[in-house]
Design goal:
Elements (H helix, E strand, L loop, with lengths): L2 E6 L4 E6 L2 E3 L3 H4 L2 H26 L3 H13 L2 H14 L11 H4 L3 H10 L1 H27 L5 E5 L7 H5 L14 E5 L9 E6 L3 H6 L3 H13 L2 E5 L6 E6 L9 E4 L3 H11 L5 E2 L4 H7 L8 E2 L3 H8 L6 H12 L5 E5 L5 E5 L4 E4 L12 H14 L4 H16 L11 H8 L2
Parallel strand pairs: 4-7, 10-11, 11-12
Antiparallel strand pairs: 1-2, 2-3, 5-6, 5-8, 8-9, 12-13, 13-14
Helix pairs in contact: 3-7, 4-7, 10-11, 12-13, 13-14, 15-16, 16-17
Length: about 425
Amino acid sequence: MWYAKMYFSEKKEVFQFDSHGIKGVPSTYKELPFLESLLSFLEADCKELEPLLRRAFSRLDGAEAQSVRDFAAANPWLGEYALYRALKARFGQTAWFDWPDKDLLNHDPAALAAARQELAEDIAFHQAVQFWFFSQWKALKDHANGLGVRIIGDLPIYVSLDSADVWSERREFLLDKAGRPSRVAGVPPDYFSEEGQLWGNPLYDWAYHKKTGYAWWIQRVRHALGIYDLLRIDHFRGFDTYWAIPADSTTARTGKWENGPGMELFDALEAALGKLPIFADPVSTAKAEKLRPVLGKLHTLKPNRLEAELLSGVKITDDVSLHRAADALLKTGLHRVFISLGGDGVFAADRSGERVHLPVLPAEMVNTTGCGDAFMAAITWAYLAGTDLTGTAKAGLAASAIAMEGAETISPAMSGEALKLRAGL
């Protein structure tokens, strides 16, 4: 099952589509050529792909069928997911919390055992589809890695309410007895939205996660690290504090900040999975303060001058104090630090003792939105390529320059070759 959202920032409108249909598309947008083509493709995909997969499943031979069974045994999540998909089909793709069979809705063991027998073939089909996907994904990733391409995966902090995750692990989430959220996720009002953003995802019961040693999160991150080379967690700040909105609210204005798991989660992840290469951009001095307790868990930090002063305790007035600030940050356990100095370029330092201060690259200023994100993406890209500190800093500056010269937030001119050319790598 796939799921996506598309945002139109000018009018703050959003619609979503998944493998069972498309919802909330404003009529004016249906007339856009690119969107009309996209929607037609997705609707055709929904109707035509499953019959083809069913035909392929009917032709599974003994060896491949055994491979599917081996894959299912090696991936415990697959049993619950395949059963969930089979039950969704049985109930006409109704959301699990609206299923008429309350025993299945409530994940009753006896009801589940009966359903597994009754829907055995359908369950096996969904297991096969996942086997095919992950086999093809591994082949693609191996090929990309062989060409020197590393893949950065994106892991949303929250999951959908109507998902196998929530249905099978209700204790992990803040739900009532009927399986409905008591509070939901979002963000408060800001410059971009007077009402804030009401995402509607169920929130985690962090007290329960703590009791389990964060086992669900360890499993989730371990799986993601197994299919990607590097992992980006969206809305990372939600692990510190998160915006909790009453489930019956129609606006994010009514939410309030609540405490997340903080360092405990990352201590558990590190204990189970080893040292993780986490890259962080503080974004603001207010959020930089929240990073202080976890600096030692990060690999790379990209603060601006004010954020670096706050986190290091060193007032940056000249090159000497700049070095002192970087040294103080590295002593926390960081491997690399890139201090953005605006018009004065960037100062980079690492634990090996290398230091470099590079000027900004000449660029025509068209749009500065996205320059910081471009810098961060480029230094991550350079890290994956094994680039040294100086080359990594040059890549970041080159990405910022390319982003600045484009009218779009994400520049269509951005590419690995463009970065290398602009950075002189």
